[in-house]
């Protein structure tokens, strides 16, 4: 019997009070006094698990953006989307207070080697009982590359070629332990069956690793892979590796075109296209009624800092937008830098709203403001039309967005039969495969 199709929900987190929506940290209800406390991250893990989210992952960067006007003054000074803490040190705290929700971080294949990545993520999967996720990125900015000891960012094609090898090498390391290799026979004096542990002996053009990995085989074998490929080469990479694809589109039509393209690429690579979950981002403001939600959204929009919005857009596109007015100019100036998906979304927004690209990059992320019914209607429309398999939700205001969404929208989605009431499995991959 065919299992009913249900949505997947993933939370997009940052280790700072701003995540995607620039004015969010200025909302009076957004706490700022707990940024360095474990309780902040434990609380949100509990909230998201209670709402039955598939997973939460931290978006992360390897530095402080200084693209806008060649300085970090506006981005840092006005409260941009920063990485104030190392997410890999927070995720075990979140794992301690939860039992089902998947937990992941962004880690770059350009800056880290396969052994370090396989060991770190494998540790998280063991500690969490099989709930680790890896948001794989190749990075997109020179300021990050310089912090990794490079003169600048390698070309995009080279970054993705290296990423393919890093994933191959990580898989060879993870697969180097059989599930029953660890014996732990105290009386017999046998700690492990060494015949069931193998060298990786991976040699590629860009990376090599001998192994064996010091981490035993984890509950999932390997983490669930998230990816956000948008450029042609990025889509090729996502089609090969991703189990959940994070994307960002301004309209449902653009989302449908993306899904069609990605399904074809995935199938062409020999995978089952429907096994890969495609999840566009969605920023919401929830109110008991539509008018209450619109009033809250207007309150937030009134706190928009135009310089911070432009600094944020500059960082995403990899170009100083104080000097650029067109999409074509931004793409030329960015060259090897920037996130193609963000540039596409801004161009889509300009087209959909009949405004210039220069105006689009000066607008904060669009909000869906409404009652639980209104928001569920929108999500159901995209989901049932095939534009997505669920959504990635950044917080408009942290943690209130997730608290209100879990309290008001999730029950409405459950009532419609669109979202799980309980987790079906104990590992993240089990819950991705079977959404309940």
UniProtKB/TrEMBL annotation:
<feature type="binding site">
    <location>
        <position position="106"/>
    </location>
    <ligand>
        <name>FMN</name>
    </ligand>
</feature>
<feature type="domain" description="Luciferase-like">
    <location>
        <begin position="38"/>
        <end position="386"/>
    </location>
</feature>
<feature type="binding site">
    <location>
        <position position="160"/>
    </location>
    <ligand>
        <name>FMN</name>
    </ligand>
</feature>
<dbReference type="GO" id="GO:0004497">
    <property type="term" value="F:monooxygenase activity"/>
</dbReference>
<keyword id="KW-0503">Monooxygenase</keyword>
<dbReference type="InterPro" id="IPR036661">
    <property type="entry name" value="Luciferase-like_sf"/>
</dbReference>
<dbReference type="InterPro" id="IPR051260">
    <property type="entry name" value="Diverse_substr_monoxygenases"/>
</dbReference>
<comment type="similarity">
    <text>Belongs to the NtaA/SnaA/DszA monooxygenase family.</text>
</comment>
<keyword id="KW-0288">FMN</keyword>
<keyword id="KW-0560">Oxidoreductase</keyword>
<keyword id="KW-0285">Flavoprotein</keyword>
<dbReference type="InterPro" id="IPR011251">
    <property type="entry name" value="Luciferase-like_dom"/>
</dbReference>
<feature type="binding site">
    <location>
        <position position="230"/>
    </location>
    <ligand>
        <name>FMN</name>
    </ligand>
</feature>
<protein>
    <submittedName>
        <fullName>NtaA/DmoA family FMN-dependent monooxygenase</fullName>
        <ecNumber>1.14.-.-</ecNumber>
    </submittedName>
</protein>
<dbReference type="GO" id="GO:0016705">
    <property type="term" value="F:oxidoreductase activity, acting on paired donors, with incorporation or reduction of molecular oxygen"/>
</dbReference>
<dbReference type="Pfam" id="PF00296">
    <property type="entry name" value="Bac_luciferase"/>
</dbReference>
<feature type="binding site">
    <location>
        <position position="60"/>
    </location>
    <ligand>
        <name>FMN</name>
    </ligand>
</feature>
<feature type="binding site">
    <location>
        <position position="231"/>
    </location>
    <ligand>
        <name>FMN</name>
    </ligand>
</feature>
<dbReference type="InterPro" id="IPR016215">
    <property type="entry name" value="NTA_MOA"/>
</dbReference>
């Amino acid at each position: 019997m065919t299992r009913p199709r249900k949505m997947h929900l993933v939370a997009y987190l940052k280790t700072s009070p701003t995540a995607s929506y620039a004015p969010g940290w200025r909302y009076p209800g957004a706490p700022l006094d707990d940024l360095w406390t474990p309780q902040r991250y434990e609380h949100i893990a509990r909230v998201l698990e209670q709402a039955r989210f598939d997973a939460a992952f931290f978006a992360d960067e390897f530095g402080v953006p200084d693209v806008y006007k060649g300085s970090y003054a506006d981005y840092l000074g006005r409260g941009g989307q920063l990485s104030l803490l190392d997410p890999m040190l927070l995720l075990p705290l979140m794992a301690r207070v939860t039992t089902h929700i998947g937990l992941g971080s962004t880690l770059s294949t350009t800056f880290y080697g396969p052994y370090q990545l396989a060991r770190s993520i494998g540790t998280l999967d063991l500690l969490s009982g099989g709930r680790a996720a890896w948001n794989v990125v190749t990075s997109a900015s020179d300021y990050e590359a310089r912090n990794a000891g490079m003169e600048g960012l390698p070309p995009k094609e080279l970054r993705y070629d290296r990423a393919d090898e890093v994933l191959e090498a990580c898989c060879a390391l993870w697969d180097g332990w059989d599930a029953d290799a660890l014996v732990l026979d105290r009386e017999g004096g046998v700690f492990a069956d060494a015949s069931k542990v193998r060298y990786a002996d991976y040699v590629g053009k860009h990376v090599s690793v001998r192994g064996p990995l010091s981490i035993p085989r984890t509950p999932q074998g390997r983490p669930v892979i998230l990816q956000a490929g948008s450029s042609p080469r990025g889509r090729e990479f996502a089609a090969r590796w991703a189990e959940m694809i994070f994307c960002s589109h301004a309209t449902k039509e653009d989302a449908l075109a993306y899904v069609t393209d990605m399904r074809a690429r995935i199938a062409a690579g020999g995978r089952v296209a429907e096994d890969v979950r495609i999840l566009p981002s969605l920023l919401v403001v929830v109110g008991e009624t539509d008018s209450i939600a619109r009033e809250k959204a207007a309150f937030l929009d009134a706190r928009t800092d135009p310089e911070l919005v432009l600094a944020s857009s500059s960082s995403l596109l990899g170009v100083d937008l104080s000097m650029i007015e067109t999409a074509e100019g931004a793409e030329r100036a960015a060259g090897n830098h920037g996130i193609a998906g963000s540039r596409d979304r801004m161009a889509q927004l300009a087209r959909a709203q009949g405004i210039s690209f220069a105006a689009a990059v000066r607008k904060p992320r669009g909000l869906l403001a409404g009652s639980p019914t209104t928001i569920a209607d929108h999500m159901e429309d995209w989901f049932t039309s095939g534009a997505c398999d669920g959504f990635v939700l950044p917080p408009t205001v942290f943690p209130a967005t997730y608290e209100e969404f879990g309290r008001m929208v999730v029950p409405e989605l459950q009532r419609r039969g669109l979202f799980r009431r309980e987790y079906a499995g104990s590992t993240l991959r089990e819950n991705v495969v079977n959404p309940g």
